[in-house]
Amino acid sequence: MSGLLELRGLGISFGGLRAVDDLNMSVEEGQIVALIGPNGAGKTTVFNMITGVYKPTDGQVLWQGRDITGASPHRVAALGIRRTFQKIRLFPQMSVFENVRAGCHLQARQHWWQGLVGTRAQRREEAALAERTHAVLRRLGLHKVADERAVSLSYGVQRRVELARTLVAEPKLVILDEPAAGQNEAESAELNDTIFAIRDSGVTVLLVEHDMNVVMNVTDHIVVINFGRKIAEGSAEAVRTDPAVVEAYLGRDDEAEDAA
Amino acid sequence: MGTFVQQVFNGLTVGGIYALIALGYTMVYGVMRLINFAHGDLCILGAFVGLTLLTGTAASGQPGALVLLLAFAVAIVVIAAAGVVLELVAYRPLRKADRLSAVVSALGASLLIENSIMLIWGPNVHVFPAGLLPDVIWHVAGATITFVQVMIIFASVALMAALYYFVHHTLFGTAIRAVAIDQDAARLMGINVNRIIMTVFIVGPALGAIGGLFIGVYYRQAYFTMGWTYGLYAFIAAILGGIGNIPGAMIGGVLLGLFNAFAAGYLSSSWQDAITFGLLIAILLVRPTGLLGEPVAENA
Amino acid sequence: MDAAKKPVTRRNEAIGIALWAAGFAIPAFASSSWVAIAAMFAIFAITALSEDVILGRGGMFDMGHAVYFGIGAYTTAILNTELGVPIFLTVPAAVLLAAGTGTLLAAPLIRLRGDYLLVATIGFNAIFVLAMQNNPGGITGGSDGITGIEAPSLFGIPLFSQSAMFWLDWVVLGLVLFLMRNLDRCEFGRALRYLKQDELAATTLGVDARAVKTLAFAVGAGLAGLAGTLFAVQLSTVSPSSFVFTESVTLFAIVIVGGPGSIPGVLLGTALMFVVPEIFRDFAQYRYFVFGIAMIAVMVLRPQGLWPRRRNGL
């Protein structure tokens, strides 16, 4: 059995610090998988290795069985893998529309010279991509703020803009780094529906989340890591009662501080 | 053998001057992440201020050394004051703005100072008066070494040692280094960042004024575009040693001076300059933090 | 809403086109020295717009842009005076050679960030000028440069008059403005903006940073090369002093003072640097003194530039 995305013995060191060590996990197509763990456990580092932001020192990242370890971020994006960031990274000088439109970059087939000359085919493509962007904006309820400067909006809306920017590319896998962070209760409840809707549209979801309401209610499969190592995995129910997990979370006060 | 020793002394003299000027670039870059393009022009302004005093008092029959000391003192005070004004007017308002704005403001300040010199002293080459310093010459291993060279080398070394002591062994120097590492953290520790930056804009131009006046005394001439030429060399020296790094600027200055002196023995001056710039680019590509530089956070 | 369709964008474009069209009438009422100034404005506007591709839109600190301008000018001068190639036929060579140099230099340059990039481009500019002065192979004419460049001829009719030359420059400026306006609306231009604002986010969206930045250098350098041809023709002579570092600083300042990424801003900046001094000819020696003050004043009072790019529109 080979998953859509598979990590084999993945590890990375920063100087002397072993941030992630011998991580094995698999994400099956159509699943919602969560990667959880205490602060500083190395979750975002794993995402950064998958998306090419960091080059792993050991192990492999397999995409549909193909080794993509160490590929640069734009190549990873071209495979159909899109991500959001824990600390939201929207283009600060751009409107919501423009930010989401940026997600279509690889959908644009125009050559640079066609763009400079403004050929008919290029203009038609621009119109089509604008329409595609509007469709996603409507789907995520962002059409009313399309012309607002994205970073002037509330945190929760900004997260949705970033999500829209990944979805507009119709990716195979979206990687969400703490999608519920900074959202109020209503927004976070709404997020569960959104994640289900993403999955139902045929997109596989891998997420890091602290909000247990989200993690326990939406995920098919959970992987727990601590100090860069996997300590448990399984269904929400199995993970919740796993002694290693309980200890990792309860022991958090005295240990996690050092790791963070 | 004779030429070798000669080039070493020529190189050390010029290198000492480069180092004095390079310190101003590197200190400002260290605390503000700004290339102070006006620094070279400030230094040459120092040369002109000194020159005016020298020519004014040379006829008075006072002893040369006394006149020279006075010229240095006045140049230092005037240029340090100019440095403070520069900081207050052109840089402080832009501290929170985009970095490019500060770069353009610095370029504007450079044009302003350079052309002020031209408007005040005219576009011609000015010759420094002769006979101020003893005409002593030493012959060492076949090389000829002048009193001026020895004076410049000694003075540069002494000034650099003093600066090194100031930055690394006094509380104020520690504060400067703290601001260079992390301005916000330094502020939280109760350091008055504005005062530190102001100090850097006093110390850097003061050293630069000495360097500028040395250039005048050594080459016995001054002209208004000289700030660019020597400023650029000193700036390359700062990059060579690792911009933002104070000992680096000293070493970079001396190395560049030696490099130029030896290249001059074998190459025409224009290709020599081309090689200097080639060297600069090579260093930027291979080791952008310079020979001694610590990695500088570029996202700041 | 698609910004290209905004009524305000349409209106501004209409005003721009009308002003450009009206410009053709300049020779009808201006003296020939003013027509020459207008021609120089057009040439430097093209150069400044080409610098804007790299600096304003790409956010890459290129302070050696006079190199590409110079390569275009020298290519035309050498091909025309040495080999007798007609001016119009030198254009592809000037553009391609400048663009090729831009591409070649971009390979190492784009690895550098911010100030380091700026310093390296200063270095390339200095090397270029020194190389031209040293007259390699006896083809650049050393410090005196090359003289005797012919007037271009169109369908066998030489464009001797200053007015004809101005019209030619004005047409080319119009073409470059058209390209710049399209740059705002195409994927290449957008990708540059993404990279400038957040390179990491851009690459995770699939933007190939190396390719896009190299292309920006190539396009910016190529357009500067085109302007170089016009410059060589306008003066009928080229020499190293026209492409020194100070020229690069001026181009850099035009973009930042005018407004990075803003077409009207860059045009305004060009006018301030090249046309206004002509009005105050009697005070010529104060020119750079005033520039210096103006550069500081504009940056302190309007750090975004005199005519900044509109934020939400395109």
What would you say this structure looks like, in words?
The complex is a heterotrimer of chains A (260), B (300) and C (314). By secondary structure, chain A is of the alpha/beta class. Chain A is globular, with a radius of gyration of 19 Å. A six-stranded mixed beta sheet of chain A has the order 6-7-8-3-9-10, sandwiched between helices. A four-stranded antiparallel beta sheet of chain A has the order 2-1-4-5, covered by helices on one side. The relative contact order of chain A is 0.18. Chain A folds into two domains: 1-80 and 173-260, P-loop containing nucleotide triphosphate hydrolases (Rossmann fold, 3-Layer(aba) Sandwich), CATH 3.40.50; 94-170, no CATH class. Chain A has helices spanning 43-50, 73-78, 96-102, 112-117, 120-139, 155-167, 185-200, 212-218, 236-241, 243-250, 252-259, and strands spanning 5-14, 17-27, 32-36, 58-63, 66-67, 81-83, 173-177, 204-208, 221-226, 229-234. In chain A, helix 7 (185-200) packs parallel to helix 8. Chain A is built from eleven helices and ten strands. Chain B has 300 residues and is mainly α. Chain B has one domain: ABC transporter involved in vitamin B12 uptake, BtuC, CATH 1.10.3470. In chain B, 75% of the residues lie in helices and 4% in strands. Chain B has eleven helices and four strands. In chain B, the strands form two sheets. A two-stranded antiparallel sheet of chain B has the order 1-4. A two-stranded antiparallel ribbon of chain B has the order 2-3. In chain B, a hairpin with a 2-residue loop joins strand 2 (137-140) and strand 3. The longest helix of chain B has 31 residues, at 2-32. Chain C is mainly alpha-helical and 314 residues long. In chain C, the strands form two sheets. Chain C has a two-stranded antiparallel ribbon with strand order 1-4. A two-stranded antiparallel sheet of chain C has the order 2-3. Chain C has a domain at 29-243. Chains B and C meet through helix 4, helix 9 and helix 11 of B and helix 6, helix 11 and helix 13 of C.
